[in-house]
Amino acid sequence: MSDLLLLGLIGGLSLLLLLTLLAFAGYSGLLAEVTVSAGSPPIRNVTVAYKFHVGPYNETGRLFTESCSVCPRLRSVAIYYDNPHMVPPKKCRCAVGSILSEGVESPSPELIQLYQKFGFKVFSLPAPSHVVTATFPYTSTLSIWLAARRVHPALDAYIKERKLCAHPRLEIYQQDQIYFMCPLARQGDFYVPEVKETERKSRGPAEASDTQMDGTGADTRSEASSVSLEVGPGSRETSVATLSPGVSSSRGWDDGDTRSEHSYSESGASGSSFEELDLEGEGPLGEPKLSPEAEPVGAPKWPRELSTPEKGEE
After folding, report:
1. 203 CB contacts (<8 Å, ≥6 apart)?
2. Roughly how many angstroms between the first and final C-alpha of the chain, as a whole number?
3. How far apart are alpha carbons 194 and 299 in whole angstroms?
4. Arithmetic mean of pLDDT, 218-237
5. CB atoms within 10 A of CB 311
6. pLDDT single digits (tens) 105-141
């Protein structure tokens, strides 16, 4: 009799523990609806303090902890430049840090000096006219893990289906929400100097090997060298990358193809444009969103197309 009572007690406690875990997962966003849309950006004209990271995205937790320890009241931000399923983890690039100010307000010199003292650099991000965006509850550390596995595939599907030029990929951690944002315009302004420098270095040897002299002494380049990821100083309103006609690579985080190295700037190479989108309701800041259902007259064309913070160390 005592054995049956003990087994019943163990079973009851196990069931209670299971229900508690399920409730916690639900609270963290397990059943939260993920809605992806195109509209106005959740942040505008922000100044960020960041550290640049090259390597697996799951190693960036220390950078979030470091930036939060400098000034815990500020919002955290991450900018991911490479698709981790298409670029070797050791070569994935990102910038992680804190938002110092937004809008017309400038960060105080004291705040800038404080972050620079700890090795952070300062960079300004613009306010693009339209972005692909989504949100996810930020109620626990588990929310970060769930968001990485639920939101990114939804973003990939939305961008791929509409053949959009949306890159790089940003995450903004604000109070109880995680904002995901992929700019549809002014993408070059979101690339920190270190990214441009790594691209120049990586393109140098490749261009040298691809450049050949023909019989008349003229330079000819192989088709592979027609891919350019470098952002020039004047590239303030256009995409960060250009691809030769016929090159297509619209794959997402949920795609395991590792045949070559691809940044997000190449993920919508197959005829990207958001002229197919139209307004659909209100954006995060009360501005119109875009809808894929109609094609507005005169809409501008764009030529083409975790590693997440932790509220504490996991």
Report:
1. 228, 229, 230
2. 43
3. 33
4. 35
5. 16
6. 899 999 999 999 999 999 999 999 999 999 999 999 9
Share of the chain above pLDDT 70, in %: 65
Task: In whole angstroms, give the CA distance from residue 251 to residue 302.
Answer: 19
Half-sphere exposure for 32 (CA within 13 Å, toward CB): 27
Token look-up 């190693």 returns 59
**pLDDT, tens digit (0-9, with 9 covering 90-100), for 258-284:** 333 456 665 544 444 444 564 344 444
Which residue type sits at 277? L
Query: For 200-228, b where at least 16 C-beta lie within 10 A, e where not — what string?
Result: eeebeeeeeeeeeeeeeeeeeeeeebebb
Question: For residue 99, what are the CA distances in angstroms to 8, 27, 243, 290?
Answer: 53, 27, 32, 26
Cα torsion through 100, 106, 107, 110, rounded to 10:
170
Q: List residues bridging with 76 in a β-sheet.
A: 98, 173
24-56 residue pLDDT tens: 889 888 889 999 999 999 999 999 999 999 999
Exposure pattern of 70-102 as b/e (b: 16+ CB <10 Å)?
beeebbbbbbbbbbbbbbeeeebbbbbbbbbbb
| pLDDT band for position 200 (cuts 50, 70, 90) | confident
